[in-house]
Write a structure and sequence with these properties.
Largest sheet: 3 strands, antiparallel
Helix content: 55-70%
Structural class: mainly alpha
Distance between the termini: 42 Å
Shape: globular
Radius of gyration: 26 Å
């Protein structure tokens, strides 16, 4: 039990009892630890009491600064621990958003921005840079000692709400489970391909991705299924050729870097059929997807160009599936009871199954054409080697992996409608499919 240390109130003399009292920093650390313990034990009353003590006496500058420094340090420690446990910036923000509020998300972004200042730019992977830019994680405050006060003002909350938000976020970060590492964390020297190869690949990547995004945007927005089919075929052709070119270029240049990974959100509702859809897209793109249902995402492993294709295709197909599903409208049985949920669950399961069939057909055709072309004799061994590398990466990162099964489907109408929608969907899939299911 915490000792009842004496601390002078505002305006009181600073005389102390004979027993040595802790400093403001020590008391702030102890109170923060007790607030965290209260949260862990579900003691809401105790938590609120400790928060009130931490937030009390805002007119005493020394105390307020001690509390703010303690909370800021705890937040950065939480972020650093997340990196050590295999989490990346986008993973942390997605998880905070699922478990807490938008306010917690904004504070987490600030904590991430503060932590990232400790790392040299030369030791931050491109994937991390991309995530930080998309998230907008930037240091916007002038002085660290004033950050939480400025954050409170910007959020229009009092100190008690600020302290509660910070402690809740620290508690959430401290409880993050360990994930398989899918790339070098900040502070690790980067392993680069030869400069000439790297620059060439990046230029080609940006041009190709821009074209594919434009084609998929048109496919998603058109009201004419035939037009979506034509646009999707062109996007598929671009990506298939791009993936094969990447594989051959890596082999020719001696680039021996192995597979990497990225995490893709798989959100409710209907997360199970969405995970199936991501799996068939990943398999078609020489990647593998491992679903973490309780965390709301899948880890996708593969080579970088393939990973980018998986994310683009999955996002586009999900948009198209959702649009078609909503357009189909609600459903009721003969007694007037709602059947909308079972209809939509069946719809998405059927959609994923049919998309898998179409991807297998398209993948086989793309690989056959490339193998029959000039230099094709070298292609199949290269692709086979990359497939083995991805499988080995999965086995290494997830040694106890278990294959899941699709849930039962109880709505025949939804199944038929989902397959029909899949036949009209826009694809940009690519090479051989191995047929793995969502793994958890």
């Amino acid at each position: 039990m915490r000792k009842a240390w004496w601390r002078p109130r505002s305006g009181e003399a600073a005389a102390r009892p004979s027993a040595a009292a802790p400093t403001s920093a020590e008391l702030a650390a102890e109170l923060t630890a007790e607030a965290l313990r209260a949260l862990s034990h579900g003691d809401d009353g105790g938590f609120r009491r400790h928060v009130a003590e931490l937030a009390g006496e805002p007119d005493v500058a020394e105390w307020a600064h001690a509390v703010d420094r303690r909370l800021a340090a705890a937040l950065q420690d939480g972020v650093s621990t997340a990196w050590e446990r295999g989490w990346q910036p986008a993973d942390v923000i997605r998880f905070v958003g699922r478990r807490r509020t938008a306010r917690h998300v904004r504070l987490a972004l600030d904590a991430i921005a503060a932590e990232m200042r400790a790392y040299s730019a030369a030791t931050v992977d491109d994937q991390w840079r991309e995530q930080l830019a998309v998230l907008g994680a930037e240091v916007w405050w002038e002085h660290d000692d004033e950050h939480l006060a400025a954050w409170s003002e910007g959020e229009e909350v009092d100190r008690a709400e600020m302290v509660a938000c910070a402690v809740e976020l620290v508690h959430l970060l401290a409880g993050l489970p360990r994930l398989a590492s899918i790339g070098p964390r900040p502070g690790t020297p980067r392993r680069e391909a030869p400069a000439s190869t790297r620059d060439q690949v990046r230029d080609v990547d940006q041009r190709m991705l821009g074209k594919v995004r434009a084609l998929l945007a048109k496919a998603e927005s058109t009201e004419f299924p035939e037009e979506a089919e034509a646009l999707s075929a062109r996007a598929q052709e671009l990506i298939a050729r791009h993936s094969i070119d990447h594989a051959l270029l890596a082999a020719e240049s001696g680039d021996t870097r192995g597979p990497s990974g990225r995490r893709v959100a798989v959100d409710n509702p209907y997360d199970a059929p969405k995970a199936v859809l991501l799996t068939v897209v990943a398999d078609a793109n020489r990647c593998r997807a491992v679903w973490h249902r309780e965390l709301g995402f899948s880890t996708v492993l593969g080579f970088p160009a393939d990973l980018a294709a998986v994310e683009m295709l999955f996002t586009s197909l999900l948009v198209q599936a959702t649009t078609a599903m909503v357009h189909a409208g609600p459903r009721r049985d003969a007694r007037g009871r709602s059947r909308t949920r079972s209809f939509r669950h069946a719809f998405l399961n059927a959609y994923a199954a049919r998309i898998g069939e179409r991807l297998r057909e398209a993948a086989g055709e793309a690989t056959s054409r490339a193998a029959a072309g000039e230099g094709g004799k070298d292609l199949l061994p290269v692709l086979a080697a990359r497939d083995r590398a991805v499988e080995e990466a999965v086995d290494t990162m997830f040694p106890n992996l278990a294959k899941g099964r699709a849930g039962s489907v109880s709505n025949y109408e939804g199944w038929v409608a989902g397959r029909a929608a899949a036949d009209l969907a826009s694809l940009n899939g690519r090479s051989e499919v191995t047929g793995a299911f969502p793994r958890s």
